[in-house]
Amino acid sequence: QIEQQSHVQQIKTLLKQKNAVLVAHYYTDPEIQALAEETGGCISDSLEMARFGRDCDADTLIVAGVRFMGETAKILSPEKTVLMPTLEATCSLDLGCPIDKFSAFCDAHPDHTVVVYANTSAAVKARADWVVTSSIALEIVEHLDSLGEKIIWGPDRHLGAYIAKQTGADMLLWQGECIVHDEFSAKALNDMRHLHPDAGVLVHPESPASVVALADAVGSTTQLINAAKNLPNEKFIVATDRGIFYKMQHAAPNKILLEAPTGGNGATCKSCAHCPWMAMNGLQAILQSLTETSGHEIFVDDELREKALIPLNRMLDFSA
Ligand code: 13P
Ligand code: SF4
């Protein structure tokens, strides 16, 4: 506790000295989110993290999240120094979508518009026509479908299937998944619903279709927080990373929030509703990124950056 306080004080001092801000995702641990809040940084979903990082006037961004979030920040703000608590924090969607294989998939369907989720490398974004996050994917695909475009979607197959079902768009899906959301179990969730019949069910669309089918609200992290605040239920079962409870409970202070069950049929969970890569963003690692810098800085190759900027800006302009 004393050590934690000392880290917090040192981080606050260094953030000021370096004109740096902390940009944190909702899945990071509560002390990181609290620190971002207290120091005038941002806690948000991946879309608003990108926008905040681009628009703030800091010289340095400390991105507490996973690597694609740091890369996105650098692509949008090449003039800023972008640091991450650890460069090891990756994402199973990014890992499961290597550029050579994905590019070959796109080359095999040249008449398709390539739409990629933000949870991808800079190289994959550079190969895409559009980047989307879960908060804007539905609207962008609806727009492309209305223009009669056929779509290649990567990498999350569950989110892709959900969007295809909602929009009726013609979509070829890359078969990636998020190791955290993929573990939510429809059977166990259904059993839990019977124990809490008054509870609303909130589901992130990276979850399997059978789990999404049980939802009262489906959406990005920000959209789920808003649903907890705005839906009339006093209790919710929440199928996403448990890091979200910090902000969700603030937004809906009188409501009861329950974690959705992972691993049905007695299977043990591996990530157990907390992303192992988001969990790498500790206070000590943030302090280290501010003191050592080297080994924490994000660089993106100039040519890739310029190419990846085009589909990223399309998303930001579309959602402005
Ligand atoms: P959001 O865009 O909803 O923040 O999701 C990012 C993510 O990594 C979810 O697992
Ligand atoms: Fe990637 Fe899933 Fe972790 Fe989000 S929760 S960063 S999608 S592995």
UniProtKB/TrEMBL annotation:
Subcellular location as annotated: Cytoplasm
Record-linked Pfam families: NadA
Origin: domain of life: Bacteria
Record key words, sorted: 4Fe-4S, Cytoplasm, Iron, Iron-sulfur, Metal-binding, Pyridine nucleotide biosynthesis, Transferase
Cofactor(s) the protein needs: [4Fe-4S] cluster
Chain's role: Catalyzes the condensation of iminoaspartate with dihydroxyacetone phosphate to form quinolinate.
Name listed for the protein in its UniProt record: Quinolinate synthase
Organism: Paraglaciecola algarum
